[in-house]
Design a protein that fits this description.
Immunoglobulin-like, 2 domains, 4-stranded antiparallel β-sheet, 11 strands
């Protein structure tokens, strides 16, 4: 019975060869772990950047509070479109000089950058903490003015509809359909 407990014939391999194999296995495991950690870190960085860009494209939008049109008494057409804008909930700072606009009518498409020289658009401050063209707070209100002839391509007549798209530098878009009332008689301004 005690003979099987103290059997010295079946012993494990001990020696320098076993030590070399063990060290080699530890080194291979360490190198593999290093590669995995490096790859995971790179993927995490890319995922964070993609998530942040996606969030900006979704949330960094302009919100249109109101839209109105200035009516020319002489011609009886809308000669300018005025938009009161703020930033949407959850949006970061929005530089209005980097916002592109697109007016789509039944006849043409006009695209340009807000406040660019020759674009027929301008930025006015209604209520803001700063005097620049950056919407930094939800309470900031700015006036975007578009000349109908320059920005849209023509004056708007009664019953016309225009689709306006405002796109921030981050890629977030706001689409608004503007409809001119059927009758513009004896009016100097209309809600769109």
């Amino acid at each position: 019975m005690f003979e099987t407990l103290f059997n010295t014939d079946d012993r494990g391999q001990v020696g320098i060869g076993t030590l070399i194999v063990f060290i080699a296995m530890v080194l291979v495991a360490a190198i593999a772990a290093g590669v995995l950690i490096n790859t995971a870190g790179l993927l995490q960085t890319q995922a964070e950047a993609t998530g942040q860009e996606t969030q900006q494209q979704v949330s960094d939008r302009i919100q249109i509070q109101s839209a109105s049109g200035q009516v020319s008494e002489a011609r009886g057409n809308v000669t300018a479109v005025n938009l009161t804008v703020s930033k949407a909930p959850g949006a970061g700072n929005i530089q209005l000089n980097n916002v592109t606009y697109e007016f789509v009518t039944s006849e043409e498409v006009s695209t340009d950058v807000v406040n660019k020289s020759g674009s027929g658009s301008s930025i006015g401050v209604i209520d803001a903490d700063t005097n620049d063209d950056v919407i930094t707070d939800r309470s900031d209100r700015y006036l975007l003015n578009f000349s109908a002839n320059t920005s849209i391509g023509r004056e708007l007549e009664g019953g016309d509809s225009v689709t306006l798209t405002l796109t921030t530098a981050q890629g977030a878009s706001t689409v608004e359909e503007l409809r001119v009332p059927d009758s513009l008689v004896d009016r100097s301004a209309v809600a769109l």
